[in-house]
Each structure stands twice: as structure tokens, then as C-alpha cells.
């Protein structure tokens, strides 16, 4: 009876030993598989992190270079950073999510490619517009420079024209010879003789010549004679006023000379109807409103 019991016990022990060996082999195999799976997981995780880090660098460079699109790029960058952080936090137990995150990464890479392509397209258009704008600005600057230059030339020409006009105006002035002035008294026979006594003066005789001037325009010329007393009042003023320096003045006589650029003699006879006082009388002569000669005459 002892032998069968021993055999039975030995068989059970062998079974247990075999079971332990099987479990050991299976455990070893599972550990090996787990180790291999962990290595694959870590490799996939690292690849995903690198891909996402590369995308992040691309976005940051694009944000720096293309600041006008920074808002859109910033939003996309935040999405990628969040996805990379999620991948970093994955554990071995989350290996099933690797596929999901790889798919998300692939989609982001495609979106990233489309977005950068669009940004580059818009950036090229913007560069072209900036180039055209620079060309237009340069053209405007050149045009403004030309306008300024032409304006300066025009101003210079106007100044020269004005100077020439003034010179011509001066050249056109008809000068006169020395004025000969004489106070006259009327005799009983009607003839006039010279006098220096103010109480006997019946007229003033003014003589001078309009001198030759080839520049002046020929034709009728108004010649005004003004005789003034010590109080600067016109003696025997005529009704018609004279113009001098854009002002109206009273004159004693108005003559019309038919001037043909040659010397011509002028004589003015101013009648005195009222008694005049002793003093110095001034004779002023105007041709076309320009004072061209003066003289004076003293009476007792």
C-alpha cells in the first residue's frame, strides 16, 4: 500500500513542477512581450513628441517672420502644444491611444502644410504689393521732386520776369528836359511880361521838352502840370484830377502830347484869377501818372 501512495505523491509533485515551469516560461514570455511592447510604446511616443516639437518650431518661426498672421498661428500653435503635452503624459497603459494621437498628428501636419502654403501665398502677394507700393512711392517722390524743381524754376522765372517788367517800365518812362517856370503879369495891351511880385501875377508859364525814348510806346500821352503853394495847395486847379502812385491829386493844367518817340516841346499856360501870396511855388510834372520833373519859383 505504501508504494502506490509514494508514486501518487511523486506524480503530483512532478505535475506541480511542470506547472511551475510552464508558468515561469509564460511569465518570462509575458515579461519579454511587455518589455518589447514598452519599447515600441516609448519609441512611438518619442517619435510623436519629435514630430509635434518640429511642428511647434515651424509655427514659432512662422509667427516671428509673418507677424501679420500671428493670431491665426498662435491659435494653431496652442493646439499643437496641447497635443504634445498630452502625448508626453501618456503611460504604458495608454498605449491604445497612440494610434489616436498619431492620427491627430497626421491631421495637424496636413493642416500645417495647408496653412503655411496659404500664408506663403498671401505673403508673396503682400511682398508684391509692397514692391509695387515702393515703386509708386518712388515715382511719387520723383514726381514731387520734379514738381518742386519746376515750381522753383517757375518762381525764378517769375522773379526774373518781374525784374524785367520793372526794367521795361523804367525804360518806358518818358523823361523831360529841365523845367523853365516863369510868373507873368498882363499889361494893358494884352501882352504878358515876367514878374517876381506875387501881387501882380496873372499867369504861370511852364516850358519843357519830352525827351526821345525808343522803348516807350508811341501815341497820345497825358501830361499833368501841378503848381503848389507853401501850404501844398494846388494853384488854379482844373476840374479833372490827376493820378499819381494810385492816388488822386489836383493839377493846374492837363496837356495831351502826340508822342512818336522823338523829342517834343511842351508849353503850359496857367491863368491866375485870384491874388496869390508871396512864397515859393513848386512845379511838378507828370507823364502818364509818373513824376518826371520838378522845379520851383520864388515870388515876393
Supply database-style keywords.
300 residues, alpha+beta, Immunoglobulin-like, 3 helices, 53% helix, 23% strand, rod-shaped
- Structural class call reads alpha+beta
The sequence of SSEs as H and E is HHHEEEEEEEEEE
What characterizes the major β-sheet? 4 strands, antiparallel
The number of domains is 2
Rg on CA atoms, Å: 61 Å
- Output the number of helix runs: 3
Strand element count: 10
Distance between the termini: 196 Å
Major sheet: arrangement of strands: 2-1-3-8
Strand proportion, as a percent range, falls in: 15-25%
**Which ranges are low-confidence, i.e. pLDDT below 50, for 5 or more consecutive residues?**
none
Tell me, rounded to a whole number, the average pLDDT.
Answer: 77
Question: What does the overall shape look like?
Answer: rod-shaped
What does this structure look like?
The protein is rod-shaped, with a radius of gyration of 61 Å. It has 3 helices and 10 strands, in the order αααββββββββββ. The mean pLDDT is 77. The protein has a 4-stranded antiparallel beta sheet, with no helix packed on it. Helix 1 runs antiparallel to helix 2 and helix 2 packs antiparallel against helix 3. Strand 5 (241-244) and strand 6 (247-250) form a beta hairpin. The chain has 2 domains: 2-126, no CATH class; 180-299, Sandwich (Immunoglobulin-like), CATH 2.60.40. It is 53% helix and 23% strand. The chain is of the alpha+beta class. The relative contact order is 0.08.
Amino acid at each position: 500500500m505504501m508504494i502506490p501512495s509514494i508514486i501518487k505523491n511523486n506524480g503530483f509533485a512532478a505535475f506541480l513542477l511542470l506547472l511551475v515551469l510552464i508558468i515561469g516560461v509564460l511569465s518570462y514570455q509575458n515579461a519579454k512581450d511587455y518589455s518589447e511592447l514598452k519599447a515600441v510604446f516609448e519609441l512611438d511616443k518619442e517619435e510623436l513628441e519629435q514630430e509635434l516639437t518640429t511642428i511647434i518650431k515651424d509655427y514659432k518661426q512662422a509667427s516671428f517672420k509673418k507677424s501679420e498672421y500671428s493670431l491665426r498661428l498662435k491659435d494653431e500653435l496652442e493646439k499643437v502644444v496641447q497635443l504634445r503635452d498630452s502625448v508626453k503624459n501618456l503611460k504604458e497603459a495608454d498605449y491604445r491611444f497612440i494610434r489616436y494621437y498619431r492620427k491627430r498628428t497626421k491631421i495637424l501636419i496636413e493642416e500645417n502644410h495647408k496653412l503655411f502654403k496659404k500664408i506663403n501665398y498671401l505673403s508673396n502677394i503682400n511682398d508684391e504689393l509692397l514692391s509695387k507700393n515702393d515703386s509708386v512711392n518712388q515715382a511719387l517722390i520723383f514726381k514731387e521732386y520734379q514738381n518742386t524743381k519746376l515750381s522753383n524754376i517757375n518762381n525764378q522765372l517769375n522773379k526774373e520776369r518781374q525784374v524785367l517788367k520793372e526794367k521795361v517800365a523804367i525804360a518806358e518812362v518818358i523823361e523831360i528836359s529841365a523845367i523853365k517856370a516863369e510868373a507873368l503879369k498882363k499889361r494893358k495891351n494884352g501882352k504878358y511880361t515876367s514878374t517876381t511880385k506875387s501881387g501882380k501875377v496873372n499867369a504861370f508859364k511852364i516850358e519843357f521838352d519830352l525827351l526821345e525814348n525808343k522803348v516807350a510806346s508811341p501815341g497820345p500821352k497825358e501830361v499833368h502840370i501841378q503848381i503848389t503853394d507853401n501850404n501844398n495847395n494846388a494853384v488854379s486847379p482844373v476840374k479833372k484830377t490827376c493820378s499819381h502812385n494810385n492816388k488822386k491829386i489836383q493839377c493846374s493844367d492837363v496837356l495831351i502830347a502826340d508822342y512818336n518817340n522823338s523829342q517834343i516841346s511842351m508849353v503850359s499856360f496857367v491863368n491866375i484869377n485870384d491874388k496869390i501870396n508871396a512864397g515859393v511855388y513848386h512845379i511838378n510834372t507828370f507823364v502818364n501818372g509818373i513824376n518826371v520833373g520838378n522845379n520851383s519859383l520864388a515870388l515876393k
